[in-house]
Amino acid sequence: MFLLFTGTGAMVQAFQLPVDRLNRDIGHGKDGLTTKVMLRDRNGQEFRIKFDYVNRVPSACTPDVHNKEVERLIKEDKVHFLLGNTHFAFSEAEIANKARRLTYHCCFETDELFKLDYQYIFGIANLADQETHQALTSMALEDSIAKLFVFYTTDFRYGKTACKNAVNYVSSKLRRISTKFELVKVMEYSTANVSSNPDFFSSVVTEEAIRSGATAVLGCDNTVNGFAIAKALGRIKDRLKAIFLTLSPGVYGFAEIVGPENAEYVLTSSSWHPKMLGQGDSFFGTPKQYAEAYAAAFGRPPSFVMALASATVVSLLFALQNAFRGCEFLDPENLDVDSLLFDPNAIRCTNRTGIEAVAGTTVTGYDALLKSLSAQSMSLFLGNVEFNHFRRNIAHDPVVLQVQNGVPEIVLPLEEASRKLIMPIPHPEEQPHVGALEEDSFIIVVVVVVVGTLLLVAALVMVVFYRQKHARKIRSLLLIDPEQLEVINLPLQLDTAWESGKARLRNTLVALEPLTEVKVGWSSPGDPTSSRKSSPEMSMPKKSFLMKGKALLSTSPSVGDSQELRYIDMDTEEASHRSDPQLMDSDVESLQQEVSHWDHVVM
């Protein structure tokens, strides 16, 4: 069986990938996949399906050259099926339909072609009519987007159809969602306009967008022009809240071609993405598995165009596999491809009730194949496939992609999304501010200040705790119990001076020095609530000091030779800040009498 694609480059590779996989059993049995496909009749007789791929690529492909190649393939090469070419779809379809050759279009054709109702023309791509609807609805629901500017080329049917339907959708249905969302300008241009002005998109399209006051733009053009448009819009991107372009943002390497800043947040619609969920078949598996198979064969990831091209071959393969389940091979030993498809005496087919498929007429394998493909309703790695009466796939819904961090990600519909939709496009000057700082920076400053304050408080608490602990330790070292002090002789007053006394403390000889200039206060005996009275003032040398816990020694001539050691627990801080620290001695009255005769002494 022969296939045709009259294109160039990666499209040819995308068609070749499933052919090689089928003919060479690549991946057969891996992860439950079946690439060795058999064709069976109702009696269980089976034949191996293989494709022989023929490709014609003229060096200079004009419509006339292309049409001659199509006729040559049908008449001379006698191919059984054609894989359609978008650029020459109408002329090609007319030739193929007259020759009764199935032509399966992979890519961007509009309903104009299919409404011609050619029996042999099929298309697997989603409709261009609804290409922009999901993205436009999101724009209308965004409060900051009010004005839409639409521009498109009149020389690219797919783009023209997509944008014209977008205009109708905004004017009709979206007005019910948001009354403030309006279409401010629609601009049409031709290939001649672009060719005559190398700076057309920057000097004409973007300037028109500025004049219209648009906050969102939607452009429909081919892939190559889409790259130039993305670069031109990058110049006014700070004015825009949303950008939607057909085709180009979904192409592999878009961010590298137009520049990361120009590519970021641009929206597009796509027929396929490797992160799509819930899709798959027994030949390639899931979208992710198809992407891995393509990358393994050609060393780069596939775009949605490649997936569409490969899917036409897989869809045709399954249609062939199912076409003869209700038929009987009348002479299986002499059956070849040509007789299978074109010889009415090679097969006998019945419908579900077992009656002859077409009473009084002959049925060929080609008829059975067309019927099988028309009735196809299944899921492929591309998505769902089901044809309307014009043989156009109506079951496959596109996804909306947005370039984020240089990579096209699925953002709509939500059940397929791999990333959250970012709309409006964020701009640095629009970031939330608190005073002179951006919101994020302000939060960072607050966190740093709070953490710093907490650390400072923790440090102060530790310092206070340490000082208190140290003070308690010093106090424990300096606090002397009177019973531990063995007095040898008391201080002796010599005229105006004092001679130190002596005592023994824990087998250590210590000196007893008198304290002077200490204001000593006390409460009246028997009345702890009465007001205090000042004691006589004594003089104390500067070298003397007062510390926590003092052993004070006093003697009075009135008691003869008796010596009495008194213990007073007095806090340093209280002594420094209170002018009349209270003596904590139980014998206050005797101390009052003694203070005029003896100064207090401390070690």
TrEMBL record:
| Region of interest: Disordered | 521-540
Write down what this protein is called: Periplasmic binding protein-like I
Write the signal peptide boundaries.
none
Species of the source: Dunaliella salina (Green alga)
Q: Which Gene3D superfamilies match?
A: 3.40.50.2300
- Residue span(s) of domain Leucine-binding protein: 60-323
Against PANTHER family, the record matches this protein to: ABC TRANSPORTER SUBSTRATE-BINDING PROTEIN, LEUCINE-SPECIFIC-BINDING PROTEIN
Keywords carried by this UniProt record: Membrane, Signal, Transmembrane, Transmembrane helix
Membrane spanning stretches:
442-466
Q: Does the keyword section mention Transmembrane?
A: yes
Composition bias of kind Low complexity appears in 531-540
